[in-house]
Amino acid sequence: MMFIESSVLTRLVGRLPRMDEWQFYNRRRMTEIHDIEVSAYELAKASGDAVDSTSMYLSPALQAEKEHLIQTAFGDWNKPHFFLFVKLLARYGDRYGRSNLAAIAREMVKPYDEVARYADTFFTRGSELTDWDKIRKSIEKGESKLLEIQRLADQTALKIKRYANPYDDLVINYQGKGTCDALMRICEKDNVDFDLKEKKDAALQRELADQRDELAKRIADAKAELNRNQALVDEKIMKEAKKMQAAREAKRQKKETKADVDSAKVDDALPEPVREELRQMIAQSTDKEASTIALKFCAKHVKCQLSQVLAIIQLYAAPVRTNDGYSF
């Protein structure tokens, strides 16, 4: 017999579901079909046939039976679901029990058809459960209390009907205080709606659900409003930043334009031959101070203004910071 790695077998053939006892799978038949599928896979593997995840190793009839067994079981019922179902069956105060599956379905938040089908399977195959005797006794105890409550209600109704005016004619034979209160309770017992508590609970649940929905809606609206406000703030910040950047750029361009104009004016203040002589003097001078060069040049050209010559020197030569001052 060929042995196959578990991971490969699971990927190509499939894995059996967990099949807990409260999910009511047909364990025996599911295991048989799975064994047939594994054997068919091993046979195909041994014969050299191509095997992949798209290959079918069951006949159409067996494949349909397998799918039917999975669908008729209750694979999505976990242990808390099962315990809640048993608890509601055994509950007597709220008149759930097996005769009120609609209330059980509402309590479990499951479709009525699914709960009804589960209840039918539960009472049919309940003996397969490990603690069936304990579960059955708990349910029967709750149902017996339901019957006792119903019997007391019927007897109370019959007793009230014997009197034309039970508030005046009904006599309570016991020595105790609060006779009037007890009389009112007994007379009103016949008019008590045993479903009233359930209706009140349902109304309360609806009100709480509406409040939760309203709170969730208000939170969502608040988040949306916060996002809108944040977007507006971000937009204003970006606009202000762009405006400041544009102002800085305009100021810089204005300064550069003014500097270019001033440079052009200074450059045009002297004739070209004189400017050329000044450039040569700057290049050949060993003086480190621009003012010294300007004084020497003005001494040679008395018609030149010292401020204009100094400005031209600063335009032509880039000053370099040294320990003794600026050099050009």
Question: How would you characterize the overall build of this protein?
Answer:
This protein has about 325 residues and is an all-alpha fold. It folds into 4 domains: about 5-70, no CATH class; about 80-190, Arc Repressor Mutant, subunit A (Orthogonal Bundle), CATH 1.10.10.60; about 195-265; about 270-325. It is built from 13 helices and 2 strands; from the N terminus they run αααααααααααααββ. It has helices at about 5-15, 25-45, 60-70, 80-90, 100-110, 110-125, 130-160, 165-170, 180-190, 195-270, 270-285, 290-300, 305-315; strands at about 320, 325. It has a two-stranded antiparallel sheet with strand order 1-2. A hairpin with a 2-residue loop joins strand 1 (about 320) and strand 2 (about 325). Helix 4 runs parallel beside helix 7 (about 130-160), helix 5 (about 100-110) packs across helix 6 and helix 12 crosses helix 13. The protein starts with 5 loop residues before the first helix and ends with a strand. The model has no long low-confidence stretch (mean pLDDT about 75). Keywords: Coiled coil.
